[in-house]
Design brief:
By secondary structure, this protein is α+β, with helices and mostly antiparallel strands. It contains 4 helices and 12 strands; from the N terminus they run βαββαβββββββαβαβ. The strands form 4 sheets. It has a 4-stranded antiparallel β-sheet with strand order 2-3-1-6. Strands 7-11-8-12 form a 4-stranded mixed β-sheet, with helices on both faces. A two-stranded antiparallel ribbon has the order 4-5. This is RRM domain-containing protein. One of its GO terms (cellular component) is membrane. Pfam families: RRM_1 (PF00076). It is found in: Endoplasmic reticulum; Membrane; Mitochondrion.
């Protein structure tokens, strides 16, 4: 699934004092209809005191409309809204995690869309099994995805190698964790969608 097909966006650079209800109100004031599926968690880095949210909308067109809010001021910060999910994206985070589970998509995949299921004809239905089902079974784990430009065809074809992506992923993990120590579990999908 390509990012243009998603009804879900990542909202970052949010104030640590922001709550889900305040983010929901901000979106409502902008006439963007969000579903009740808003996940809000800390970015994870001790150096960066910000929150990141994953917001699923009632439709893909609402998600596209939300992208126009990128850079708007909310609780004293210019928020970033995108659906590319490039780099590390925290989808779920318990209070004191002991494990990071990091999902890495395959070639021509998408950090969020690879793991999501959208039911055609059902407005606002988008299930993403990593944050929707995994935290209930692995209670002390942060759930993350790693996105990179994995395009194989067209004008957005990546010029980076798999080794470059691996180095980028490792550096992002080092930066994200700062001085925190915990186990990491990686898993990926080895498919190539040329469609």
């Amino acid at each position: 699934m390509q990012p243009k097909d998603l009804a879900t966006v990542r909202v970052s650079n949010l104030s640590p004092s922001l709550g889900v209800s305040r983010l929901h109100s901000f979106l409502d004031r902008q006439n963007v209809n969000a579903t009740s599926n808003i996940s809000l968690c800390s970015h994870g880095s001790a150096k960066d005191s910000s929150l990141v949210a994953t917001v699923t909308f009632q439709s893909q067109s609402s998600a596209k409309k939300a992208l126009n809010l990128n850079g708007r001021l909310l609780a004293g910060r210019n928020v970033s809204i995108e659906r590319g999910f490039m780099g590390l994206a925290v989808l779920a985070a318990p209070e004191d995690p002991m494990l990071d589970i990091i999902a890495v998509h395959g070639l021509n995949g998408h950090a969020y869309g690879t793991w999501a299921h959208h039911e055609d004809g059902q407005s606002g239905f988008e299930a993403m099994w990593l944050p929707d089902f995994l935290p209930g079974n692995v209670k002390n784990a942060r759930i993350l995805v790693y996105g990179y430009n994995s395009a194989l065809l067209g004008s957005n074809t990546s010029v980076s190698s798999v080794k470059d992506f691996a180095h980028d992923l490792l550096q992002r993990i080092i930066d994200d964790r700062a001085d925190q120590v915990r186990y990491a579990l990686f898993f990926g999908i080895n498919t190539c969608d040329l469609g």
